[in-house]
Amino acid sequence: xxxxxxxxxNAVAPFLIxxxxxxxxxxxxLTDRPFMDRLxxxxxxxxFPFLMFNNVYSAKPENMxxxxxxxxxxxxxxxxxxxxVLIVPRIVKENPRRGVIIQGIFRSxxxxxxxxxxxxxxxxxxxxxxxxxxxxxxSLFNVAAVIVLxxxxxxxxxxxxxxxxxxxxNPLLQGCVVGLLFYAFQIRLPSFIATPVSSLASLATTLAxxxxxxxxxxxxxxxxxxxxxxxxxxxxxxLPLVMVPFAYLIGLRGVELFxxxxxxxxxxxxxxxxxxxxxxxxxxxxxxxxxxSTVASLGTIFLFIFTMSRLxxxx
Length: 315
Known about the structure:
The protein is mainly α. The protein is built from 13 helices and no strands.
C-alpha cells in the first residue's frame, strides 16, 4: 500500500507545488494577473508548440501508441460529444451555457497533465507515447470545441471559414504537424538547434501550471455551484470510472491504460476559458469549471493512480 501511495503522491505533488508557487506569487505581489495572462499567451503561442514538436519529433517507434489506443481515445470522445449535443440542450435552456457545459465535460487538460504525469509514473521514454496521443486528442478537442461553441452561440450557426481558420492557426496543432513531418521523413536537427528546442519545450508545462495557480480565484466558488458540481462529477469521476475499466476489458495495459485515465480523468482544459469567451460562450462559467476542476482533480487523480497502482495496472 505504501508503494502505491508514493506512486500517486509523487505524481500529484509536483502539480500542487507548481500551482502553489503561482498562487503565492500573486498573493505576495511578486507579480500580477495581467502579467501572468501575457505569460500564458507567450506559453501557448511559443513554448507549447515547441513541446508538441519535440515530443513527436523525438518519439521512438517502440513507444508509439497502438492503433487500439488511438481508436479508443478518438472514437470514445467523438461519441461522447455527440451524446452531449443531444442531451444537454434538453436540460439547459441558455445557448451560451450549453456550449460551455458540453465543452467542460468532454475537453480535458490532457496536454498539461498528460506528459508530466506519464513521466512521473512511467519515466521519460514513455512520455513520447503521450506526446503522439496528445497530437490526436488536442486536434479532436479543438475541432469539437469550436464546432460546439459555434453551434450554441447566439444564432446557432456554424461558420465554416472561422472553424477552418481556428484549426489551421492553432499553435499546438502546428507544432504537432511540423513534428510529424520531421518524424516521418527522419529529418534530424543539428545539436545547436535541438538543444534550445528541447529547453523551450521543457518550459511549457511548468509555466502552464504556475500561471494556472496564479489565476486561481477562490471567491468564484459559490457562483454556478450546482452546475459546476454536476459537470465535474461527470468529468472527474464518472467518465474515468466508465472508460478505464472499458479500456482494460478491450486489452489496454500499462502506459496506454494510464493515458485513458489522462484523457478522461484530468480537469477541464485551461484553453476552454479563452475559447468560450471568444466564441460567445458563458465565460464566467467556463472559468469556474477550469478553476474548480483543477483543484478537485488533485484529489481524484491521486485516488485513481493509487487504486490503479494497488491493482497492478500501471506495469
